[in-house]
Amino acid sequence: MQDMKAEKLSEQEIIRGIRHGNVGVFEYVFKLYYPRLKLYGTRLTGNESQAEDFVQEAFAGVWEKKYLLSDQGNLKALLFKSVRNKYLNYLEHNKVVDKYIKANDPNDASQGLFMFSFLDEYEFEDLKKQMMDEVEHLLDTLPDNCKKAFVLSRFEQLKNKEVAETLGLNIKTVEKHISRASKLLQIELRKRDFLLYMLFLLLIH
User: How far is residue 7's CA from residue 95's CA, in Å, rounded to a whole number?
Assistant: First the structure.
């Protein structure tokens, strides 16, 4: 194959090359994306050595499952997503999720959205849909007024006083309903998928 330095490969050429076990193409991709992936991992973890491990594992995963790569895939997005997921798994396995959330306010959009910054628009919207499907399913398990209070507060952006007037309840009851729904959603989403949980904190909580 031609010297990779002398040409710029298209996304499809890269994917096909890796899928067919072309080591030269794989090395080309490694050199192309490694610096940005390492920077991304370092910003997530605050640890350059840990970031390097995640990046190397991400590349190893692509090579091991190269036969599953699709011509229509986005390899760069796949690699960034893999690094992010390895970081999230690391948090879960090491029981430091609470420490992370306290150190990085999930309501700070500039901080939290960085975790999703390498998703393309379709992937981000798909993740939002997954999160909303889970939220709607969980809300359906709550008493009617509890569900309505949360929906009016978080989705329709009504103030607690307005929610109380709409439902014919006192404000303290509304606050209890919203708190109950919020706690349920956080607990269950965190159990099911940490990424959906973080997205919930950013967009709805």
Answer: 45
